[in-house]
Amino acid sequence: MNAANDYATLVGRIFLSALFVLAGINKAMGAAGTIAFITDAGLPLPQLVYAGTVALELGGGLLLLVGYQARLVALAFAVFCIAAAVVFHPSLSDPSFLKNFALAGGMLFVFANGAGRFSLDARRGA
């Protein structure tokens, strides 16, 4: 990989992770509203779904940021984004539907290519 690719991969990881870390913080600060949203979507065990979502967005976002277990985290986010699109934004006319699929595509790119040179994964030879 050349230097431009190394830096682009780092910046891309930062941008992707920022979205999830901030979303996780917002959900953590607004538990009642988020749980109500999950309940309204008809998902079972809304408190458990809420806790898992916050853990993935915050924890996974931070792991992606530093590039640790990035392929696994990115795959989890890809599945999460597709599920969120289908469950919470099931209309093609909803911009969030396409945004979630675009995010899933970015995460699949990280899954396929790894975290890049500037990551903990690269330091440990993964």
What is the gist of this entry?
With 126 residues, this protein is mostly helical.
Protein model, in words:
With 126 residues, the chain is mainly alpha-helical. Helix content is 79%, strand content 0%. It has six helices and no strands. It has helices spanning 3-29, 31-40, 46-66, 70-88, 95-113, 120-123. The longest helix is centred in the N-terminal third of the chain and has 27 residues, at 3-29. The protein is globular and about 45 Å long.
Average pLDDT taken over every residue: 96
Rg, please?
15 Å
- Spans of at least 5 consecutive residues with low confidence: none
What is the CA-CA span between the terminal residues?
Answer: 15 Å
Choose one word for the global shape. Answer: globular
Which short descriptors sum up this protein?
mainly alpha; 79% helix; globular
Per-chain topology:
Layout: H1 3-29, H2 31-40, H3 46-66, H4 70-88, H5 95-113, H6 120-123
Helix pairs in contact: 1-3, 2-3, 3-4, 4-5
